[in-house]
Design goal:
single chain, 278 residues, alpha+beta, Phosphatase 2c, domain 1, seven-stranded antiparallel β-sheet, five-stranded antiparallel β-sheet, 7 helices
């Protein structure tokens, strides 16, 4: 079976200038492009993020995944991370963000997933947008109108998240199912990148670097130049070819964002129930 999206990717990561250990982990092998940003103190975050990525790595090489595949892998990962309640992994937790390649009625789609404040962006037909929505205290303040976007970038609470895998959180992931287009470029990153580079700066680098590996490397480098205050990870994924099936009007059918309705509670955790900082 042929993959519904043929992709090329680049990946770069660095501990940053203030952290000794890199608690980020990532997977950049079709059909999975995921970043996990660990939390919980010395070694705990490193263990949690690696555990989650390990759970997804078994799918590498498949042509596509379903939302049930992703949701089941998150459930398995959560059980494993929760089991790290004693010893070196005590208090372990991690974010998870990224895209997997999905097949919807023979067409190629990006299935984006998010838990926490790592991010997924898409550059498509000249339009650059943030796909994921942070699960963070600051994002809730922005959504309620109590904080502006500019102030949010500087707010000291920006690393306090409200959903994670582990760290005492049972918050469920958000999903988005996006029709892919040939030429799409997707960026998946930990907050060590997005906290150093603003939206327009990310956009400029993605437009300016044609090779995905060069783009990922430059993104991490620029975040280091601006302070490198956290672990930094960037994945850049290009859609080289996409299987499509035009409808009668010549436009592609659209599919709404989906989640297993009987399993996923879309409500955010109460503001008072923040998971913690990273």
């Amino acid at each position: 079976m042929h993959a519904p999206i043929i992709a090329r990717s680049g990946a770069a990561t660095d501990p940053g200038l203030r952290r000794r250990i890199n608690e980020d982990a990532f997977l950049a092998e079709a059909p999975l492009y995921l970043v996990a940003d660990g939390m919980g103190g010395h070694h705990a975050g490193e263990i949690a993020s690696a555990t989650v990525i390990e759970e997804f790595a078994v799918f590498a090489g498949r042509p596509s995944l379903t939302i049930d595949d992703v949701h089941a892998a998150i459930a398995r990962a959560r059980r494993r991370v929760d089991a790290l309640s004693t010893g070196a992994g005590a208090g372990a937790g991690t974010t998870l963000a990224g895209v997997v390649i999905a097949d919807v009625d023979g067409e190629g789609y990006w299935l984006a997933v998010n838990l926490g404040d790592s991010r997924t962006y898409r550059l498509s037909e000249g339009h650059f947008e943030q796909v994921s929505v942070d699960h963070s205290v600051v994002q809730e303040l922005v959504d309620s109108g109590e904080l502006s976007l500019d102030a949010a970038h500087r707010d000291t609470r920006r690393n306090v998240i409200t959903r994670a895998i582990g760290a005492g959180s049972d918050g469920e992931p958000d999903y988005w199912l996006l029709p892919a287009e040939e030429g799409d470029r997707v960026l998946v990153c930990s907050d060590g990148l997005s906290s150093e580079l603003r939206h327009d700066e990310l956009h400029a680098i993605l437009v300016g670097e044609s090779d995905p590996q060069a783009a990922a490397t430059r993104l991490v480098h620029e975040a280091m130049v601006r302070g490198g205050r956290d672990n930094i990870t960037a994945l850049v994924i290009d859609a080289l070819a996409v299987r499509t099936r035009a409808n009668r009007s010549g436009e592609r059918d659209t599919v709404p964002a989906v989640a297993p309705v009987d399993e996923v509670d879309g409500d955010t955790l109460p503001r008072a129930a923040a998971v913690g900082g990273k």
